[in-house]
Amino acid sequence: MTKTPATQVAPLEVAQWPSVLDGVSADMNGAPINVHKLMAHSPHLLRAWWDFRNYSVSGGSLGARLGELVILRVGVHLGAWYEWGSHVDRAQRIGMSTDSIFQTLNARPNLDMPDNLILAAVDELMQDHKINAQTRAALEQHFSTAQLMDLIAIQGMYVILGGFINTWDLTLDEAVAKRIETVTNRANFECAASEFRLAIHDV
Question: Which own/partner pairs from 133-142 qualify as long-range (CB within 8 Å, at least 24 positions apart)?
């Protein structure tokens, strides 16, 4: 039996976007990134999702730095190079150190306790689909209920994106790849993410 090859869906250029996405394009100064161009194949989904995206990418009540820790850790769990590379770039631009960025690749991260708890919560959400009671009790010493809800929501939002990214093997935007080329690349990330996924089960 001959198998039909899967269709490769390319990012949709802005000139082909329907008017329902005018606000999205305007928010991105007419230059949306590849993941938004990919999602533009489902324009009403992209428009409905956009406010959630804007809230999540800012880190919500967690703030930008902790939000980036969540997003980077999700990218590692998913082995999603586009997600990881994009947020290495974003994390650098908000002043995060290279060491703190790369600690998200470590199954046993060496960050301050609140940061380590954030990463542990992401690990549990990815593996158990909840934050377990002991971790939640520890988090509650540092974070409000609203912040924990935002952590869960941001994790979920980037799982959605990772699904799109990995299904269609999305190419990292050229400008982003150029900015991070001295820090990381796809081959190194995929090797580290594979080692992480093996190690996390032994923690």
Answer: 142/113, 142/114, 142/117
